[in-house]
Design goal:
Length: about 210
């Protein structure tokens, strides 16, 4: 733990540069006392990935951890605005997110990535990037059945697909390759958001990352 002491300001001297203000203690405590890591939450649309990630981020922020949630919609809007939803474009999107996550994690940030990443080879390439950089990486499968996801339908995608307004919906008319051996499998339809986040927190603790 880093201790921060605020010293009284010294009397100004002629020609002397002003001393920078000390950082607030809460900011200083948000430090790299723990190693960074990437936690990739994969699952179908409306599985609960982002909700769980945000709940976990709240828990970790209260412990003054450096946490970042890489939201898939925001990535699509800015970093991957040039991409569509073909297999190649989906893979490129996942690799871009994986690169950003690894750089942040390598620099002491715990990165939560609630992004579908439907293809196993794309996810494995991200894992390999982290392995090559000796950066911790965890894959979490939010294994909510498509029947439950279609009822939740947070963004109305399932309704649009059923009405013929869109196609290529992951898990419906586009493939989703579920992880065979994830680091953790969460069945969010059988437990609360808090319980799901706590299960993931327990995994981080077990791996020495929380």
């Amino acid at each position: 733990m880093t201790l921060v002491t605020t010293l009284p300001a010294a009397p100004p001297q002629s020609g002397a540069r002003p001393r920078p203000e000390a950082r607030p203690q809460s900011e200083a405590r948000r430090c790299s006392c723990w190693p960074g890591a990437t936690v990739w939450l994969t699952g179908l649309p409306s599985a609960g990935k982002t909700t769980i990630a945000e709940e976990l981020a709240g828990l970790l922020h209260r412990e003054h951890r450096r946490v970042e949630v890489l939201d898939g919609d925001q990535i699509r809007k800015f970093l991957s605005a040039d991409l569509g939803f073909s297999r190649d474009d989906r893979n490129t999107n996942v690799q871009r997110i994986g690169m950003v996550a690894e750089v942040l994690a390598r620099n002491g940030v715990l990165v939560l990535v609630p992004v579908i990443a439907p293809f196993a080879d794309s996810r494995e390439a991200v894992r390999e990037r982290h392995r090559a950089a000796a950066t911790p990486y965890l894959e979490v499968h939010v294994a909510t059945p498509v029947e439950v996801c279609s009822v939740r339908d947070v963004k109305g995608l399932y309704a649009k697909q059923a009405a013929g307004e869109i196609s290529g919906l992951t898990g419906v008319d586009d493939p989703y390759e579920a992880p065979e051996v994830p680091d953790l499998r969460i069945e969010s339809h059988t437990q609360s958001v808090r319980e799901s986040a706590c299960a993931l927190y327990a995994l981080l603790t077990e791996r020495g990352l929380a």
